[in-house]
Amino acid sequence: MAQPGWGLLFLGLLAMAHGLPRGNDLLNVCMDAKHHKIQPGPEDDLHRQCSPWKKNACCTANTSIAAHEDASPLYRFNYNHCGTMGPACKRHFVQDTCLYECSPNLGPWIRPVFSSWRRERVLNVPLCKEDCNQWWEDCRTSYTCKENWHKGWNWTSGINKCPVEAACHPFPFYFPTPASLCENVWSHSYSASSFGRGSGKCIQMWFDPAQGNPNEAVAKYYAFASAPGIFSWGASFPFLALTLLLLLWG
Question: Which of UniProt's keywords are assigned here (predicted)?
Fold first, then answer.
């Protein structure tokens, strides 16, 4: 049985290596989620804060309009769950939504997820320190009742409301630092990067489209830096497991 076992191992290695994500596969892509297009492309009519992505977007014009609305039809999420959110704070959450819905440059951080409303999400996108710091600074006087906004809400009314046991406090009560806001509010969709804008190593929520989209170069940097080689641990673990099984079988 040894020779057939090694033959199967070789075929298994080839098949698994062929399926590994390559650098180019992580570039210019849309995640498989609730409102995303299948492929990115031009969208001339993107609304206000989403307009920087109009040359190449994963969102439609209708999605971009809804991203600016309170308790929008996108997710029925109510930012005013502890009184009216300050406009300076709200604009960061709108920009966050635009980045999530519209950007084709999040491929290196897309991960599969088992959910009723999406098959993929982003995880640990390195958000530039200026974006994270300003988000926190502009939200310091607004109120919330939770640190993880992905779960734990009362949805009985059709929009999110604070759980009975959750008290409203200024943002710094639940988010004492900029990093805690950026990383915890959407269950680690972002990581607070130590790199700043222009470094080529962090994603910008805010950018001037007249100067081009800096996130294209950032995605390329991480796509090729993180694309697993056949002998990297993450990629080789399945190979090692298959080897062990076939050796035992043989």
Answer: Disulfide bond, Membrane, Signal, Transmembrane, Transmembrane helix
Q: What beta strand segments (E) does 158-208 contain?
A: 169-170, 190-192
Q: What pLDDT digit, counting tens, does each position of 51-74 carry? A: 999 999 999 999 999 889 887 778
The rounded distance, in Å, linking the Cα atoms of 114 and 92 is: 27
**How many residues in the chain?**
250
pLDDT tens across 35-56, in order?
A: 789 999 999 889 989 999 999 9
Exposure string of 29-46, with b = 16+ CB inside 10 Å and e = fewer, is bbbebebbbeebeebeeb
Find all residues with CB under 8 Å of 233, minimum gap 6, and list them.
none
Q: Do residues 58 and 101 lie in contact, with contact meaning Cβ atoms separated by under 8 Å?
A: yes
pTM of the model as a whole: 0.80
Q: How far apart are CA 50 and CA 57, in angstroms?
A: 9
> Where along the chain do its domains lie?
29-227
For residue 121, what is the enclosing H or E element?
strand 120-122
- CA nearest to 100, candidates 80, 123, 77: 123
